[in-house]
Design brief:
This protein starts with 24 loop residues before the first helix and ends in a 10-residue tail after the last strand. Helix content is 33%, strand content 7%. It is mostly helical and 142 residues long. Strands 1-3-2 form a three-stranded mixed sheet. The radius of gyration is 15 Å and the shape is globular. Helix 1 packs across helix 2.
Length: 142
C-alpha cells in the first residue's frame, strides 16, 4: 500500500479508526501539522455561520484526498462532528480509503434527485466522522 493510502497520523488512527503509533519523524511531523491546521481552523471559523471547508487543487495528484481525509480524522478525534464529502466525480477514492464498500449511493445520486440526503450519509470507521461518497459516476462529470 502506498504511504498515503493509510492515514499516517503519529498518535492518530488508521482508516479503520484503530490507534496506531508510528516510529519515524515524517509521520509525526505530518500528524502535528494536521493538528495545528485543525486548531487554526477551529479558531478561524469560531464566528462563522457556516463551518465548511473546501479542499481543492489544480491537478489530480495534488493531494486533495490525502489532506481532506487526514484533516477530517484529526477534527473527528477532537470530538468534532465531521461530514466528509467526496465530490470527485472522476476518480473519487475516499470510500476506498475508509474501507467502505464500492457502489454506495452518494453525492451524484442526491444531486440527481434520486435519493434523500440521509440515505447517502455513511458513518465512517472513525468516531464522529461521516462520509458522503461520490455515488455513481456521471457519464460526463464536467
Amino acid at each position: 500500500m502506498r504511504g498515503h493510502d493509510r492515514l499516517s497520523l503519529g498518535s492518530g488512527a488508521d482508516a479503520a479508526g484503530r490507534a496506531r503509533s508510528r516510529s519515524g519523524g515524517g509521520a509525526g511531523l505530518a500528524a502535528e501539522a494536521f493538528r495545528s491546521l485543525r486548531t487554526a481552523l477551529r479558531f478561524g471559523l469560531i464566528d462563522a455561520k457556516r463551518r465548511s471547508i473546501a479542499i481543492t487543487g489544480p491537478t489530480s495528484d495534488a493531494g486533495k484526498s490525502f489532506v481532506s481525509l487526514n484533516l477530517a480524522v484529526v477534527m473527528a478525534q477532537a470530538d468534532q462532528s465531521v461530514c466528509l464529502i467526496d465530490a470527485d466525480m472522476r476518480r473519487g477514492e475516499l470510500t476506498r480509503r475508509l474501507g467502505l464498500p464500492d457502489g454506495l449511493s452518494g453525492l451524484s445520486d442526491y444531486l440527481a434527485g434520486d435519493t434523500e440526503l440521509d440515505a447517502v450519509l455513511r458513518p465512517a470507521p472513525v468516531g464522529g466522522l461521516s462520509l458522503i461518497p461520490t455515488g455513481i459516476y456521471p457519464p460526463n462529470p464536467s
